[in-house]
Amino acid sequence: MKKLIILICLLTALFPWVSAQALRADAAYDAVAAKVNAQNDLANWMSYLPDDVFVAHLSIPGSHDTATAHNVSEATTSQTQTATLDEQLAGGLRAFDFRPGLSGSGSNQYLNCNHGVSTTDLTLEQAFTKLTDYLDAHPKEFFVIHLFRGNVYSTNPGFPTNLVAKYSDADKQKYN
Fold this sequence. Notes:
The chain is of the alpha/beta class and 176 residues long.
């Protein structure tokens, strides 16, 4: 910032017409206008933040068990979201909690978005593709992603033993 100020001072002294241009380019941040604009443009709300804001000073809206609106297998006990990932993105959420679990069998195993032992219709690959596509379309946005180990690694004594026994050491390696 010091270098920018020194440069502007030098340019102003050498070329008086530059001062008006520089002042317009370095206009003060209008927090009230930025808030109104962000509220009216949730898909791009981060673009209205000042350039010098620290992420640690932000309150990032997010969701718990992000993918459970995608047809969770046990909706009565496992569904924590009613908005799909696309709807959450459009609504301004930028922090996501994914619970990848191993699904399928044999050579057709893949990581799925789960909530504990309950599965959804969204694979982890599909979720990450949605996120990267969104970032391509909205390059001033970013995400906070929390990954929580799913169904393969539970050492919780309350976890159903039939599911723990279902996964071999090879499954656990594949999961990693």
